Amino acid sequence: MFKIRKAKEEEPTASGQVKIKKRSRVPGVMITQYVEELPEGMSTPDFTRKPIALTIQEGKLAIFRAVITGNPTPTVTWVRNSGELNEENNKIVFDSIAGEYQLQMPDVSADQADTYKCFARNEYGKAVVTAALNIIEVGFKKSRAMQESRTGTQVDIEVKEDKKTEIDNKFWEVLMSAEKKDYEAICAQYGVTDFRGMLKKLSERKLEREKEQEKVVERICNLKPIELKADGGAEFELEMSLKDPKSKIFIFKDGIMIPFEVDTEVKHGLKQVGKKFVFSINGVDPDDAGLYQVEVDGIKIFSTDFKLPPVEFLVKINDVKAEEREDAVFDCVLSQPMKKIKWMGKNNTLEQGEKYDITVSEDMLIHSLVVKDCLLLDKGIYAAVTGLNSCNAWLVVEADNDPNASRKKKARKTTRAGGGGAELLKIAEEQQANIQMEREKLIAKARADKEAADKEAADAAAAADAVAAADDCDGVWYKDEKEITATEDICIVKDGTYRKLIIKNCKEDDAGKYRCEADGRKTEAALSVEDPPRINPDDLAEFKEPVIIKTGKDAAFEISFVGREPMKIQWYHEGEELFKDTHVRIEKSSSHSRLVLTKCQRKLTGEIKIRIKNECGTTEAITQLVVLDKPTPPLGPVDIIEASSSGIDFKWRTPKDNGGSPITDYILERQQIGRNSWKKLGKIGPEPKYRDRDVDHGRKYCYHIRAETDQVKKNVTMFFLLFHNSAYPGAPSTPKIVSAFKDCINLAWSAPTNTGGTKLLGYNVEKRKNGSNLWGHVNPPNEPIKEKNYAVTDVVEGLEYEFRVSAINISGAGEPSSPSVFVFARDPKMRPQFTDKKMKNFMVMKAGNSARPSISCCWQASPIPTIKWLKDSVPVAKHVTVHNTDTSTQLMIPTAERHDTGIYMIIVKNLVGQVTASIEIRVTDEPKPPGPVELKENVSGTVTVSWAPSPDEKKDDRLHYVITKRDSEMLSWQTVADHVFNNKCTVVNIMPGRQYNFRVYTRNDMGLSKPSESTTWEVKRRKETFSLNHPATKNCCFETPPSFSVPLKMHKIPESYECNMSCAVTGNPKPHVTWYRNNISLNTNTNYYITNTCGVCSMVILKVGPKDSGDYTVIAENPLGRMECSTKLVVKGKNTHSNAVVTS
């Protein structure tokens, strides 16, 4: 549910509601909870993805998207800070596929620029988040606004407002991870003009960030911002050394954590090679743009802003008019390759599936959307979206108005409407060529720069070759219009028609313009000698040796070099350039430079680098500065491994900074609490742990721990450690309430982890009433509880108690545990239930006896329930006696009669619920036998036994009869019928020549009555003659009209494929089969191969073409009738696999 509301609309808080502020995992989301405790399964609204700020050109479509959770489903509203939302122009929709709530503002204008809020409410709370919309004005409006800003007073107001605007935190995150050369571009992007203030604040933020990073990272370097790759992906990398290899690394995008895997083939991947971490994004989408941050254990390490190059539509999608059941195609061409763009249809995101076909060309420039099998419902606006840019077009579906096809299902058409065709491919090829040309230019430029940088300039030999017109002519060489003669370093060589000038060990003075003249002809060439800065290898090796000094001393670095002047010399400390200062002196000359750092402190330890640069190249030299100082104090907290009567075993953490030298020893002193003297324990070695065995049981001690190094022995560091060597046991766990009753409360707890070094003797349990400050012992002090559970019986019903437990060892009772939760001394409320699983549900009793059905088990109910007995849903009669207790009930009928028969139900009910049980009581008497038995033969081979009813038949509805028989061959009685409820029964299988006797019994719930016997029954055996009558014969006719047992099937076949149609026909006489295409007979057409084998009719078309499309009919007829079967053949476009065969 969602609606549009006015801005700044407040809802009053209902009586009984509260307002609890909560934090969301998504930054910028404010949550207010209306209840103190949420019911199970319910939750307040929250944003899992908040709407982001938009900067969009005037006249475009602006969409705010948000993903909201909450149970029950929240109501979503959108408001703006100033003004009201126009319900007619602005659309609020819910995308069920993506689960997004969207605010769509088509054709935005400058007056819609504002801050928008999204509210999500349900009965348990609300959540709110804001997002800004910035509009870029274009055309006449922009020019007019610029003119007004030059002449009007509005400029001053805007400048004042800009000064008050705070710099976005994203600016600092990007700046701290960028190189200095990019500072100016980043400041221009975010509109920062105060460079001096920016640099000052940046250095402060960097110091704060470095202090935080020191907790988890030892070193960070080679930070490379995110870049877009040629394959459509993106990646950034950095090198860092983690202090703890198990530290967790998190990646955030715009403040939202994104999942990643080690595999680089997934959407987001993080690959580690040594200390190098590479984060990759495969298949970059417009939604992937944003600020990416790397965090280690919650501390920010690296930030980089990912911006996609603007993607424009070279060819936009056009309106498509399609017929019903036809496919529609939308095509567009992009200016930059993209693996995927977003397609929208009637404000819904479209995905690949049965209805839509989304394709991308190999060069990723042409994107197509195919709407399959267009129906009238598919009519609407379809859009292609690439980040901030989009284009849309109409799809118009024309209905098929053929009156003949109105009652039939319309067949799907094979034609397509829309599409760009060859012109679209031509535009895409031209754009691909332009992109490839730009890419090759960048590659060529990078290669040229690399070749120029790697070119060796020292000890080069320059040779100038010239070809003379004849072998015997001499060549004359000139340098800067002066003739050159051969010397030790200059050689003039004549080799056939070639004239060579070789200059050995080129120097800077050899640079100039050289000319060769021979036989009246001349040629010229220029020689350029490069002289980049160079450092002698021996001097470089000496410079790389680390400089180790003590704190407060001076450190000097010097190095000699040669190269062409002028040269720029720069000194760096940990990547930051050094300038002349109070503690920094820099000396420079044409061949020498010296750096002096005075009064060095420990924090200056790090990398020192000199960079020398001239027009020919750059060289660097790196060394290390180590400033020795006393180590910092050992780190706590101290972990006490064991504190018992036999000794104290504890450990601590090494100092955060060892002062530049490894720890050689720890020196310990101990003081017993209550005394003034300290006892020296001496040096214990470099391990940060110690076991003190010389202790007294039950005493308290304080320790001094000092760290010592090789370089600093006098100025040691002292660390004070105070703890108790107590022999008393620690506190047990908080007591747990196992169960509570009105006269007993059961407790349970766990033993303490610290037993004081001795065996536990037991526990003391204390109780305290709610509202009282006094604790009272539950068990006698001299009788400790041996087990870790106890039943407290000294309680008063209705009062509230809390309990605590203390452990006891040989030294006495230790610290008590934390108090338990308060609990009332009362029986727990419980729904009644029966515990007797063998309760009877049926009872038969003889009239005149007394009935005592009872339930004697304990009630599982609290509070005590009420008991009610019913007979056939009405209260029992007065002569029935009921006896009830707290846990059982008993019902008694003193002298039962037949009218006491019925269903008796007991209802046990209390405040929590009720339970019922039923028992059926049947009061009856021993049955009386039936009357005289008569025998009669109605059908040969059977005998009908009838008898007079028993006198009890009307009194007992469960009374029935049992019939038995005995014949002269088998002398035993056999039951022939049971559960007979009338007075007649027919007995079958009566054999002639045998004598039969029958007995009839009456049976009820008490048992059988005495029998009533019949007379002897006998059927005389008769001999009959055998005769056989033959039935008259009939003539059979097997003739049937034609019918299709297997009909024809519809075919969709590419052009030039082979098609095989077949069906099965039955009929007698054999039907004559004729094939038709569009009502034209094909039986005489030689282009079709037609066969009829045993009723299987087949037709083969070797290579189908467009002319073969149409309706095909098979007609089978014989003298008894005529039958036809039809199908449709659709021929698609030509396919390359021409050898495929398609059959039905």
Automatic annotation (TrEMBL):
<dbReference type="InterPro" id="IPR013783">
    <property type="entry name" value="Ig-like_fold"/>
</dbReference>
<feature type="domain" description="Ig-like">
    <location>
        <begin position="832"/>
        <end position="924"/>
    </location>
</feature>
<feature type="coiled-coil region">
    <location>
        <begin position="425"/>
        <end position="463"/>
    </location>
</feature>
<dbReference type="InterPro" id="IPR040849">
    <property type="entry name" value="MyBP-C_THB"/>
</dbReference>
<keyword id="KW-0677">Repeat</keyword>
<feature type="domain" description="Fibronectin type-III">
    <location>
        <begin position="929"/>
        <end position="1022"/>
    </location>
</feature>
<dbReference type="InterPro" id="IPR003961">
    <property type="entry name" value="FN3_dom"/>
</dbReference>
<keyword id="KW-0175">Coiled coil</keyword>
<dbReference type="Pfam" id="PF18362">
    <property type="entry name" value="THB"/>
</dbReference>
<dbReference type="InterPro" id="IPR036116">
    <property type="entry name" value="FN3_sf"/>
</dbReference>
<feature type="domain" description="Fibronectin type-III">
    <location>
        <begin position="633"/>
        <end position="730"/>
    </location>
</feature>
<dbReference type="InterPro" id="IPR003598">
    <property type="entry name" value="Ig_sub2"/>
</dbReference>
<comment type="similarity">
    <text>Belongs to the immunoglobulin superfamily. MyBP family.</text>
</comment>
<dbReference type="InterPro" id="IPR003599">
    <property type="entry name" value="Ig_sub"/>
</dbReference>
<dbReference type="InterPro" id="IPR050964">
    <property type="entry name" value="Striated_Muscle_Regulatory"/>
</dbReference>
<feature type="domain" description="Ig-like">
    <location>
        <begin position="477"/>
        <end position="528"/>
    </location>
</feature>
<dbReference type="InterPro" id="IPR036179">
    <property type="entry name" value="Ig-like_dom_sf"/>
</dbReference>
<dbReference type="InterPro" id="IPR007110">
    <property type="entry name" value="Ig-like_dom"/>
</dbReference>
<feature type="domain" description="Ig-like">
    <location>
        <begin position="45"/>
        <end position="134"/>
    </location>
</feature>
<dbReference type="GO" id="GO:0045214">
    <property type="term" value="P:sarcomere organization"/>
</dbReference>
<dbReference type="InterPro" id="IPR013098">
    <property type="entry name" value="Ig_I-set"/>
</dbReference>
<dbReference type="GO" id="GO:0031430">
    <property type="term" value="C:M band"/>
</dbReference>
<feature type="domain" description="Fibronectin type-III">
    <location>
        <begin position="731"/>
        <end position="828"/>
    </location>
</feature>
<keyword id="KW-0393">Immunoglobulin domain</keyword>
<protein>
    <submittedName>
        <fullName>Immunoglobulin like and fibronectin type III domain containing 1, tandem duplicate 3</fullName>
    </submittedName>
</protein>
<dbReference type="Pfam" id="PF07679">
    <property type="entry name" value="I-set"/>
</dbReference>
<dbReference type="Pfam" id="PF00041">
    <property type="entry name" value="fn3"/>
</dbReference>
<feature type="domain" description="Ig-like">
    <location>
        <begin position="1042"/>
        <end position="1130"/>
    </location>
</feature>
